[in-house]
Each structure stands twice: as structure tokens, then as C-alpha cells.
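Our consortium's second objective concerns turning raw sequence data into structural hypotheses that experimental partners can test. To show how far this objective has progressed, the report includes one record in full. It was chosen at random from the queue rather than selected for favorable results. The single chain below, 76 residues long, was entered without modification.
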Amino acid sequence: MYACNGILFNHESPRRGETFVTRKITRAAARIKYGLQDKLYLGNMDALRDWGFAGDFVEGMWRMLQQEEAEDYVLA
């Protein structure tokens, strides 16, 4: 049986919900630009995060499945 494991770390997409920090920031930036709000409120500014792009992760998963031998992969 050909089976690959893909371990995917944090990744972002344009379809991400508005309650998540990246969408919160971009939505607030647009609202500030159009005068609909004047400040952006965020939580813990000391928190560290790193994200990949969901499209890149999908390509990585597709490439995993193109290999002759099944392996385990970490996409980060």
C-alpha cells in the first residue's frame, strides 16, 4: 500500500475566517483606509507566529504523492 504522512504546520489561505489574526489585520487595514474604524485591537503582542501559504502546502502534498516510494513529510 502506498501511503504518505504529511505533517502540516500553520498555513494561511484567502478563505480563512475573519476571527483569525491575519484576516483580522487585513480587514482592519481596509476598514481604516475607508474611514470605517480608526484602530486595530490585537491580543498578546509578544506571541510569535510563522505561517506558510495554503497553496504552497497543497503543491507540497501533490509532490509527496508523485514520489516512487512513500515517505513521511513535514511541511512548514
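The partners drew two points from this record. The helical segments are 21-33, 54-65. The mean pLDDT is 92. Both points have been shared with the crystallography group to help prioritize constructs.
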